[in-house]
Amino acid sequence: MTSDFCDALWPEEQRSLALRELAELSGLSETEVVELVEYGALAPAGTTVEQWVFSVGAIGVARTARRLGDEFALEPHAVALLLAYLDRIHELEAELRAAQARGTFQP
Amino acid sequence: MKFKDYYAILGVGRDATADDIKKRYRILARKYHPDVSKEPDAERQFKDVAEAYATLKDPEKRAAYDQLGTRRPGEDFRPPPEWSTRFGDGAGAFEDMDFADLFAGLAGRAAQGGRGRRGPAGAMRGQDYEVTVPITLEEAFHGTEVSLDLTTTELDGHGLPHRTPRRVKARIPKGPTDGQVLRLPGQGGRGRNGGPDGDVYLTIALRPHRLYRASGRDLFLDLPVAPWEAALGAAVKVPTLAGPVELKVPPGTRAGQQLRLAGRGLPAPEGAAGDLHAVVQIALPTTLSEREKSLYQDLAAASNFDPRRHFG
Questions:
Q1: What are the Cα distances from residue A6, in Å, to B22, B144, B148, B177?
Q2: Which pLDDT does position B258 carry in this prediction?
Q3: Judged by CB atoms within 8 Å, which residues 29-58 of B form the interface with A?
Q4: Contact between B93 and B160 (Cβ < 8 Å)
Q5: In this model, does residue B227 exceed pLDDT 60?
Q6: Nearest CA to B205 among B230, B176, B246, B245?
Q7: pTM greater than the 0.95 cutoff
Q8: Contacts of A10 in chain B (CB under 8 A)
Q9: What pLDDT sits at residue B37?
Q10: Which of B43, B201, B193 shows the shortest CA–CA distance to A8?
Q11: Environment class of residue A91 by beta-carbon count within 10 Å: exposed (0-12), middle (13-18) or buried (19+)?
């Protein structure tokens, strides 16, 4: 008897993505991905657009960018700026959680 | 389906320009988006304004909406008979459709769906979905199985979208951390014209635990010890997610000191598991017996220890 449960997969950290694949997985257009790179929100390896290779972590960034762009009707440069602030917030939240876990911070 | 007055929802006139509509939407998104809003009922309000904007920002959808004329909001509504030709032979398929889906379906026909989702020859990848999955630390430690109820939007044979309830069953591997994103490949919306099915992304949310606090794969546990255990050292039983273990409290242990149990935190898919850190707390009985009080008085008289010497 086979189980009807589907295995949830870990992020494939070693996997790399080309521009088209990242666009497809994030729901952004290739032009929008290029703009996010230009504004510093994504940093692929490779010197030309054809050679660009994105890490698998770029999927989450690009998906958040699409959501912010759609839901707040923002231009790409505003989205890139918000992503930088969100990144900082996530870092601080992680530090806060770690401090709470160690018992060195009481809310 | 019920008619919705999208212009009224956004608070603009029917002659509003595209810029007016965008500006008004931005104001309302700032006000009602659940990420930033403190308004009561923000989520429902945002859903309404987002739905209105999705139709009015697109010239083709707006023109189709305008053709319907003005009606009372909430009035029962059926698309005019000629609309069936927009969907080929799709007449009669409007039965269980939502008002918003009517225009999404229209765009699906005209533009073949969302941006960036098309492959060659009209192949379209199915929609992805994101779900937050709360699990306990025990479930994260051992792995678990969850059933998720999603409402997906599937296109029928005529390209008309229909909201379809779906149950997705997922096996969560052991070792996810709080905020970890896992992927269920091919469990999202169905692809079209040979396009691949979408994925479901699961964001793991660890529920608070009565004993442990998680930081990544490391766990922290408050370990109360008696003053004499801290002073003299002791072997104490400590609960871990894999069962109790014995921990040696060294003599002279101070409050706040962390005693590490290597590899007793959350497991990792590859590499070493996290650690369990026991954070020492010096615990005192709430009431002292006469005998205990007498012994403490003897200790106070015998000791020259001054914990506040550094105050000067």
A1: 41, 12, 11, 19
A2: 95
A3: 29-30, 33, 46, 50, 53, 57
A4: yes
A5: yes
A6: B176
A7: no
A8: 173, 182, 269
A9: 93
A10: B201
A11: exposed
CATH of B212-287, one of 3.40.50.300, 3.90.550.10, 2.60.260.20, 1.10.10.60: 2.60.260.20
Number of neighbours of residue B238 by Cβ within 10 angstroms: 17
Confidence of residue B99 (pLDDT cuts 50, 70, 90): confident
CB atoms within 10 A of CB A25: 22
Measured distance CA(A64)–CA(A87) in Å, rounded = 11
The number of residues making up chain A comes to 107
CB-based contact B167:B200 (threshold 8 Å): no
- Residue B28 identity: L
Question: pLDDT for B231-281, tens place per residue?
Answer: 999 999 999 999 999 999 999 999 999 999 999 999 998 889 999 999 999
Residues on chain B touching A7 (C-beta within 8 angstroms): 170-171, 173, 184
The ranges of chain B annotated as CATH 2.60.260.20 are 6-206, 212-287
User: Measured between beta carbons, which residues in chain A are less than 8 angstroms from residue B182?
Assistant: 8-11
Fold of the domain built from segment(s) B6-206: HSP40/DNAj peptide-binding domain (2.60.260)
The ipTM estimated for the assembled molecules is 0.82
Mean pLDDT, all residues of chain B: 88
Three-state DSSP class for residue B43? helix
Structure confidence at residue A4 (pLDDT): 84
Would an 8 Å CB–CB cutoff place B271 in contact with chain A?
no
Contact flag B50-A71 (C-beta cutoff 8 Å): yes
> How confident is the model over A25-37, as pLDDT tens digits?
888 999 999 999 9
